[in-house]
Every structure is written in C-alpha cells, then in structure tokens.
Amino acid sequence: MSSAPTILLTGATGYIASHTWLALLAAGFEVVGVDDFSNSSPEVLNRLAKLAGSAPVFEAADVCDRETMLAVFARHQPDAVVHFAAYKAVGESTAKPLDYYRNNVGGLVNICEVMLRNGCRRMVFSSSATVYGVPESLPLREDAALSAVNPYGQTKLIGETILRDLGAADTAWQTACLRYFNPVGAHESGSIGEDPRGTPNNLMPYVAQVAVGRRPRLSVFGGDYPTPDGTGVRDYIHVVDLAEGHVAALRFLLGGKESITCNLGTGRGYSVLDLVKAYEKASGKPVPYDIVPRRPGDVAACYADPALARERLGWEAHHDLDRMCADSWRWQSMNPLGFEAS
Ligand code: WQD
C-alpha cells in the first residue's frame, strides 16, 4: 500500500495536465486522471503509459457530473486535486458564454462540493494571466488590479473568488491559484504536446503548423503596438516548467496550512516576431507571415513578475525560448497531424 499522497487531476489528458501528470509521477506522487475527452484525445493515455512505464490510473468522467465524480472520489480518496478541466478559448467564450460559465464555474463548484463530501480540502486551481485584464504596469505582480475582458477570463476570476470565499468560510481549505502566462513547448520526447482542435487560437501551435506545412502562412495580429518591433509581447513559459510549478504548489499545500495565489511565468517578454525567428532557427523551416490588423481584445504587452513563486514555492522557470521552440518542433514534426492521426 503506497504512503505517497494521491493527486487527482481533472482535465488530465489536456496539454498542461498531461505534462503535469508525468511530473507528479516522477516526483513520487500517486496520480488519478479524470477527463471526458471533450477537448483532448484518449491517445494521450497510451503516450503517458509509454513515457511513465506504467498504465495511468484513469477515470472517464465529466467534472460537472456529480454522481460520477462522487464515485471516483470514493474509489480513490485523493489527498489533493489539481483542477485543470475548463474550456479556454477566449474568442469562443465571447460567442458561447453560457457554455463557459456552466463548464468552468459550474464544474469548479461541483468539484469543490464533491471534495468536501470526501474530506478533501486541498486544490491547485488552473488560473490565468488573463485575470489581469489590460495591465496598468509591467511586470505584473499578484497584487495588480484584476479585471476580466472576456467571459473566459471572467470564469477564472470567479474561480479564484470562489476559492477565496471557501477558504474564508472554512479555514481547513488550502488552495493554490496558479496564474499561467503563455504555456508553450512540449515534453522532450516529442510524444506529447499541444494539439488544439481546428484552427489554433494561440501563436505557438499556429506557427508550428505553418513550419510543418499544415498551414501556408501566419497572420501577425498587429504590427503597430507600442513594443520594440510593433508586435505583441508575451511571457512564454515552457509547459514542463509549468508542470514543475504544480508539483511545487502541491508540496506547498501538503507541507503547510496556507493558501497562495501566484504567477507562473518567466518574467521575460518576447514579441511575435521574436518567436517566429526562434521557431525558424529551431525547426530549420520558414514561417512566412503577413502583418494584419490587431485582434480585438489583445493587449500590447503582458509578462510576469515571478518573484512570489520563487520565494514561496521555491520554483522558477528554467527553459529559454530556443528550448521552447525546439521541443515544440520535435512534437509537431513527429506528430504532424496531432494525436488523432495515431
Ligand atoms: C500571443 C500573441 C497575439 C495568434 C491567450 C489567452 C490566455 C491564455 C493564453 C488560456 C498575441 C499574437 C496569436 C496568431 C498572432 N489561454 N498572435 N497570430 O492572447 O496572449 O493569451 O492564450 O489560459 O488566457 O488570452 O495568447 O497565443 O493567442 O497570442 O499574431 O495566429 O501572438 O496577437 O500578441 P494570448 P496567443
């Protein structure tokens, strides 16, 4: 019988969760993954089995389904939950706000109630830098003003508020809200990575699909921002560094009595054209692009002050932009059509 803590991951076959799954196993945790495959592929489980050298413990379930989740908790009795499951496309959230509130907010409330029924009161919550809205100053510290500029961001802001209110009502709750900046890259094996359905909303997967020949050209949304080269600046963070941030957050919760909200970013901003150049170098492939009008809702620049996570979690990012692009390219070139082609 293992004495290692059991961690339940929701949205477990998704991009960040699958990388976190591997990091948790490597750190000696027991892991149970839950997903309904609404935005991921079952093939991820086969890849994880090969990478981890053991069959992943997995339950197919919708986090909004109370009865199924109660049965999952009864079977596995997790010591903590990492709640990744959420829809995350900003544009889609504007078109379908109810889907986002039902799934992202309703799903969180359901998970918290199921946790409470099973005496589990530790959660790492997948939040986002989008809760900062339009930054008033940079780099962004955790005490910066918060505002939501789209329904997706609103669901993350509401999620953080729910967890804060829960902790105020019952001090036995311990939560870690992790505000991701821009997750990119892939596991060094090239076996798992980012595999968006349809047209990628985010920059790195779109660039990867141009480099591998799935798409002809990149549209650069805006060349007239007040940034060094006029294109948008973001804090890109390697998904493996992000996964390690979750391990550090769990150790923080399991080792003490406090809750925390912190940025997971590198503290360094790169422009769209910086990333395109780095990707061409990493892949050896051209990434032709056109500068087109700005995308509504985009901010000029956004990057983190990562000091709090360093001081309180003992975590910081290590992978640089070249490594992010090299690992992304290995994944994309080994899986030109993503998981579904397996
Ligand atoms: C990055 C930069 C674009 C695509 C979003 C969400 C955020 C988080 C990460 C979930 C910007 C430019 C992009 C393209 C481009 N998601 N771009 N051409 O918008 O910073 O953040 O994803 O948590 O919540 O808001 O990321 O990758 O979409 O854009 O020029 O085809 O690349 O304008 O400057 P973003 P992104």
TrEMBL record:
EC number(s) stated in the UniProt entry for this protein: 5.1.3.2
Reactions performed catalytically: UDP-alpha-D-glucose = UDP-alpha-D-galactose
UniProt-listed CDD domains: UDP_G4E_1_SDR_e (cd05247)
Domain spans labelled NAD-dependent epimerase/dehydratase: 7-265
Xref: SUPFAM superfamilies: NAD(P)-binding Rossmann-fold domains (SSF51735)
Gene Ontology terms for molecular function: UDP-glucose 4-epimerase activity
Keywords: Carbohydrate metabolism, Galactose metabolism, Isomerase, NAD
TM regions (residue ranges): none
Keyword Isomerase belongs to the record: yes
Pfam families to which the protein is assigned, alphabetical: Epimerase
Source domain of life: Bacteria
Cofactor(s) this protein cannot do without: NAD(+)
Pathway: Carbohydrate metabolism; galactose metabolism
Family designation: Belongs to the NAD(P)-dependent epimerase/dehydratase family.
Subunit and partners: Homodimer.
Protein name: UDP-glucose 4-epimerase
Organism: Roseateles agri
Name of the encoding gene: galE
